Amino acid sequence: KGLKWISEEDFVNGLALVQLLPGATWVSLTVYVGYKIRGIVGALTCFFAFLLPPFGIMLLLSYIYFTYGSVPDVGILFKGMAVVVAGLVAHAVVEISKSAVTDWKGVGIALAAVGIMLYCANIFLLLFFAAFTGILVYSQSLKRQNTDASTENVQPNTGVMGIPLRQIMVLAVVLATIAFGVSGQPVLLQLGSVFFRMGALLFGGGFSMIPFIQQEVVTHYHWLTLDEFVVGIALGQVTPGPVLITATFVGYKVAAVSGAIAATLGIFSPSLFLVMVTAEVHQKIRDNTWVKSAIKGIAAAFAGM
């Protein structure tokens, strides 16, 4: 507000947009602000400026933990930090439930998510179930709300808004360059693709994404033990910036500094790409009943997970 880089209306629109996008919410909002100020260059500048400090701090902490974690005094320090995670996750469950589980439909989706996580633990099956169920149980009521709102506040026709081709071309070149750069090192390609998939498909950011990340890095790929994962989450809390900077910790364990870079870019780059692609069409996305219904179902499932 003090620098007056963008209008308050633009900021509110950006906040509404990033709530509908997967990935790290505040990273997406930072990218949106940069994009509105100076286009693609502004988006990239804000993206790296926002992430470099927490990345550097987490890289240093990861080095200390994996190098000196077996030293008794150092190990006790990290274990003490890890205990805090239980309270943080409990608080996150309460906060998520307040906004996401608001009726019996949400309670049903949350309980079903518990069952899927206990007996199947397939995060993509759970995502599909939550989105599909959300559309089934919420689309009609949201459609009625949209109809009522449109009769009260008719918006002028602003014409056809398509996804900008220039952004698509830039993103395609960036993705192709990154993939080519790491193609000779399968572990980096795997790290980047796994975290990119999570950043591109998981909604809510922060603690709501922890069960998915744990499933992938601990249960499926065995990159971390559960104790190491909890330490990584704790370090993500004590560093400035997004909680998902834990990806740096995971990447460092798997492939040192290059692994940390691959994992960090993997989980956060979808926020960069999606904001640049959707910034011009966010009104259409925001008002789509199916999109809103699917996200409502996914949000309810987070409480159960």
Describe this structure as you would to a colleague.
The chain is mainly alpha-helical. Helices cover 80% and strands 0% of the residues. It is built from twelve helices and no strands. Helix 5 (123-152) packs across helix 12 (289-304) and helix 9 crosses helix 10 (246-278). The protein is globular. The two termini are 37 Å apart.
- SS-based structural class? mainly alpha
Count of β-strands: 0
Overall, the morphology is: globular
* Portion of residues within helices: over 70%
Order of helices and strands: HHHHHHHHHHHH
- Residues in β-strands, percent: under 5%
The total of helices stands at 12
How confident is the prediction overall: mean pLDDT?
77
**CA-atom Rg in angstroms:** 20 Å
* Uncertain segments: 151-161
Terminal-residue CA separation: 37 Å
Descriptors:
305 residues; mainly alpha; 12 helices; 80% helix
Kindly summarize this structure in a few lines.
The protein is built from twelve helices and no strands. By secondary structure, the protein is mainly alpha-helical. Helix 1 packs across helix 2, helix 2 packs antiparallel against helix 10 and helix 3 packs across helix 12.
Topology, element by element:
Elements: H1 8-19, H2 25-68, H3 72-100, H4 104-119, H5 123-152, H6 165-182, H7 186-201, H8 210-220, H9 226-238, H10 246-278, H11 282-286, H12 289-304
Helix pairs in contact: 1-2, 2-10, 3-9, 3-12, 4-5, 4-12, 5-12, 7-10, 9-10
